[in-house]
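Listing S7. Sequence submitted for prediction.
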Amino acid sequence: MFMALFDFLFSLFFFGFFAVMFGGPFIVGILSMFFKVIREYERGILLAFGKYAGIRGPGLNFIIPVYHRLVKIDLRILTVDVPTQEVMTQDNVPVKINAVIYFYVKDPKKAYFNVENYTYAVSKYGQTSLRNVAGEASLDQLLSERQSIADKLREIVDKATDPWGIDVTAIELQDIELPENLKRTMAKQAEAEREKRATIIKAEGEVVASTNLAKAAQNLYGTKGALHLRSLHSLNDMSSDQSNIIHFFVPLEILRALEEID
């Protein structure tokens, strides 16, 4: 009696152990076919035999295998690099430009049914729009008004991708590459502009200095004894020099006085 009970318990434990070990994954696999988890930043497109059956939100969702198919759409902001495009500007200057597009899916239904691959489509449309917008601007505008050109490009791409359920948040122009000969020419132009400003500033300084000198000479001429005091002051300045040569300046007043005597 005791041995029979022991054999029964042993057989139950033995078969139960193998049932859990080998049947557990099978049961989990069956349950995973009926239940799907959608994350907070995702939405699920539910299809019933290929027909749209609604959108499923975050959490645990029940589906019927074979009858249902659940497609997950990521709602987070995605980043797409626009490859380097060689563009001819409005003033016939060849430049190379690349950009980055930031967008997210605002309508999962449109993003799934209206376009096959919305990421690829946004990238390709961004390339075409980048060439068109950059080709309508001159080189100076492209270099100095980069943000306004990027905003204009964003408006064009955002409007075109709206039927796809896409919202373009920003487009940034990363790099504008100029030909080497144009870089050298621009460097020479900038150097010439700096020399021009330096010459103008120097000339303006000379004009101011000459005006002040004229006023000083007029004041010295109109004041008696001023030229003599100025001469003594000059001699005092030269006395600090270690050289043996002393230059003595004769005021013009003395010469004029001698001329009147003659």
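Caption to Listing S7: primary sequence and predicted structure tokens for the chain studied. The radius of gyration is 44 Å. The beta strands are 35-38, 42-48, 51-56, 59-62, 68-74, 78-88, 94-105, 166-177.
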